[in-house]
Amino acid sequence: MAMDPSSTSSLQLAMAALVGASLMAISAFYIHKRAVDQVLDRLVEIRRKLPQKSDTHFEEEEGEEEDGDTEEGDFEEDFGSDGYAIMRQQSQSRLSRSLEDSTLRRYGISSSLPNVSVRNDWLEEDAKFDEAIRVRAQNCSASSLDKLNFIPTGLPSLQTPRRLEEGQSINRSGSGTRLASLGRLPRTPVGNAFESAEDSDEDGTEHANEDDITYSNENGADSKVQSSSALPFRGDGMNYVQDKNYRATINDAKPALDLHDNGKVDKTSRNAVGTETILYSTISQLRTTVHEPTNIEEEEVWKMIQECLDLRKRYVFTEKVAPWMKEAEPETNISEMRSDPFHFVPVEASKHHFRMEDGVVHVYASESDTTELFPVASATEFFTDMHHILRIMSIGNVRTACHHRLRFLEEKFRLHLLVNADGEFLAQKSAPHRDFYNIRKVDTHVHHSACMNQKHLLRFIKSKLRKEPDEVVIFRDGKYMTLKEVFESLDLTGYDLNVDLLDVHADKSTFHRFDKFNLKYNPCGQSRLREIFLKQDNLIQGRFLAELTKQVLLDLEASKYQMAEYRVSIYGRKQSEWDQLASWFINNEIYSENAIWLIQLPRLYNVYKQMGIVKSFQNIIDNVFIPLFEVTIDPSSHPQLHVFLLMVVGFDLVDDESKPERRPTKHMPKPAEWTNEFNPAYSYYTYYFYANLYTLNKLRESKGMPTIKLRPHCGEAGEIDHLAAAFLLCNNISHGINLRKSPVLQYLYYLAQIGLAMSPLSNNSLFLDYHRNPFPMFFQRGLNVSLSSDDPLQIHLTKEALVEEYSVAAKVWKLSSCDLCEIARNSVYQSGFSHMAKSHWLGNKYFIRGPGGNDIHKTNVPNIRIEFRHETWKEEMQYVYLGRAIIPVEIDT
Q: Minimal CA–CA distance to 795: which of 830, 787, 780, 558?
């Protein structure tokens, strides 16, 4: 039967391939054999050319052998007359192997090549040579070994390093000491948490690559150094870790891994971590900074950074007596305040007198006194200092140095996670009753008018339309209208309403359109519905908004562990706004222990000027601050405002920062002279509100009243000088995403630990895509960041907007439980809640820096993380101040 031509062709191709492969294999074998033969011939030649001199180390060994006659005698008794010869044969075999190693090192040949002192059956010539060596060694006596002249002069004495735990070795070169992990690379935090460091390397580990092993010939002694990502622990003057410290760390397994407070270490966690405890103990002591500048230029850079930090200390208001140093209020007063927070306690008026001069209030002890009690830096001084910071920011050397330090901080945090992530995870598991869900977290930036989600607002509107359709709610077009009539004029019914028709949610159309975003505050696109449901100064005196606010506060209290800082608006159009806002709070009994309040001022001078409401910028300053000074000097003049101010903790400036503006010069017009229709620059607003708030706080502090901090919106968009002004004047800021554009300011914000209340989901709808948000970078570098919701009505979908913010961040940026708890802890520190509340939420020593102020049973943040953050910040401060920084024990107030 004829074979198919295609089958024949395939068979021929297969045979040809087989023959070709066989030829290639045979060729490769002979090429390899020839290369090995050449190497072995070279070794034989080297051996024959060795210098004929004795070695000091060999003589020492001979002396030791002579001292050991007794042992040899015992050996002969045990093994007969041939025992001595056998022992000598073994000794010579060891000598030959040592000689081979020394010879290979001498000529720089890798010891990974075949050992010629071992018999190789496939190499006949080498086998014969080795047999001759063996016979010669057997026939030699102990006294004649020095005549063999096998060991060249000058070789170092052989030393066997003591064995460490599996996967570790110590390589010494000079005075340097290096701890390198030879066997493993780090596993995932979860995978390594349940396994000991002494487990086998079969699963989940990677061995060191041969390419990572290098050979050096330092100080005349060859040493093999393992290249790995482990940190070098050098014994020179470049850091503080000495050889004795390293030995103490290895020998003492002291509890540096403080999983809980009071110095206690959980045994289960310690056993599970294994050698990670030792690594953490060593790395936590590592000092990677040098305080001496390497050159004059670098010294000048750090002096300029010091100047910036010192300028901030001159401006920012801090309380003379920290809250934790004040006498505790009696329990009776606290219980009375909780039972009736709206009760007015009469306070005697003081004799202080104040006058408005050049846009800033000046306070005097009496009307006849001419000495200002609380002087504040002038506008010219401020703008001069701000321009000085802007000049420093533009210097190339400063930008480079700050960029390098920020990169270093980021990489240092990643290294910390590689070494200590398992320890943090186990510490959190060991803390009873605490996890992310039941630790306190504060929404540090949320606007009151948008504090509810869209579904909540829809249900409320439908409820009112069904229950109170005949309620007169607005005066429009010369007549009063009921709620039902308003909806009829809009051609709407309760049945027609849905969240899409409500149209309050931000979408693609709002990106880079702040004007469209503001229109989302109008339900169904109608400003009259906003006036009815989301305003407190309307015909019904804000009753609907008060009821809606109470429902939100009840949801907040039901969660127990969520707090919020709501912003309510004062516009500066008239002085009576303060009394109106205070009466709304008092009359509607708006209060919750889970919420505190900030005042926000929209920067809308140009709008009010065009409408003829104000004549100059001075009018806005008068309308905002004169009532505050009046109620501070004499609380009975505005009793409701006095009670309301006890719940106010901050002052905010809001509006679109992306609007173009002129950068202020050193000599700007006074507020009374600002009569044009252009809106003043951001820094102009900020200074005059800072200066008056600074004076007000000094006055309130002198009278024992709570103070108000400046915490404006800043750095969401616009020019970088907004952030420079805020650096000098503000306690905390909201947003701050533009810090990514200035490494100098970013580094300054890190060193000063200025709080950033960031809202990535809000930024995603307005100015910056979520994946480009710098929040994870800021967090890794150690900036004081927290998460906030900003506008739940426009941004979020659930009634727990803050948890939604955390959950999205955790999934997108792969934040661990420890990361989330640290961010939540930051939010409590940034917030304006009372000292008593923070003590309950964070621990009685929360005001102490570092792990001493952390209580894992309250915060669920391991001391490992807190110590890393604190020590890193201290090292950076010492680096900037060239080792002369004064680190306070307590946090800033």
A: 787
Question: 191-219: per-residue pLDDT in tens?
Answer: 443 333 334 333 333 333 333 333 333 34
Q: Which residue's entry shows tokens 């570790």?
A: 168
Residue numbers in the known binding site for substrate are 447, 516-521, 716, 791-794
Distances in Å between the alpha carbon of 241 and those of 81, 163, 182, 284, 845?
A: 56, 22, 21, 10, 30
Binding site for Zn(2+): which residues?
445, 447, 713, 790
Hey, is 520 helix, strand or coil?
A: coil
Minimal CA–CA distance to 641: which of 587, 578, 589, 695? 578
pTM: 0.69
Query: How far are the Cα atoms of 238, 278, 305, 390 from residue 871, in angstroms, in the given order?
Result: 18, 18, 20, 29
What are the C-alpha distances in Å from 150 to residues 98, 134, 406, 458, 603? 11, 13, 58, 96, 91
- Domain locations along the chain: 38-147, 168-283, 375-880
Name residue, tokens 């019904």: 540
Quick one: tokens of 859?
């915060």
Burial tier of 1 (Cβ tally within 10 Å: 0-12, 13-18, 19+):
exposed
Candidates 385, 394, 389, 397; CA nearest to 301 is 397
Which residues are known to be catalytic? 735
CATH code assigned to 375-880: 3.20.20.140
- Closest by CA position to 231, among listed 305, 283, 162, 166: 283
Rounded CA-CA distance 712/735 in Å is 9
Q: How far apart are CA 349 and CA 633, in angstroms?
A: 6
Write the pLDDT tens digit of every residue in 146-172.
444 444 444 444 444 444 444 444 444
